[in-house]
Amino acid sequence: MSTQIIIRIDDEVKNRLNKLARIEGKTTSEMVRELIEERIKERDIGSYIDDLWNRTGRKLGSKGVTPATISKAIKASRKKQG
To answer: What is the phi/psi pair of residue 60, to 5°?
Structure first.
């Protein structure tokens, strides 16, 4: 379900946003939603960490590294530290 919010912005900012939205073939609402979503992604450390783990996992998987290989490396590293 969508919820409506009301914000106040300077007239000049609104005009520039409307112009940019038209150039990109979007509505002003679409632009604002995208900007808010991008900002949240930038600031939400949990999402950032999840994305980092996913990218790392894909990269390791593409190189043939398995979860078992990772567990073995962690255990070996801990033995060397201890």
So the answer is: -65, -40
Round to whole Å and give the CA distance between 16 and 28: 10
Q: At what angle do helices 28-43 and 45-62 cross, to 10 degrees?
A: 80
pLDDT above 70 covers what percent of the chain? 99
Q: What is the pLDDT, as a whole number, of residue 34?
A: 95
Q: Does 80 or 1 have the greater pLDDT score?
A: 80
Query: Is 42 strand, coil or helix?
Result: helix
Half-sphere exposure at residue 63, Cβ-oriented, CA atoms within 13 angstroms: 9
Quick one: the chain helix, strand, coil %, rounded to 5?
A: 75, 0, 25
Model confidence, pTM: 0.54
Contact status, residue 31 vs residue 20, Cβ threshold 8 Å: yes
**CA-wise closest residue to 32 among 50, 59, 7, 64:** 7
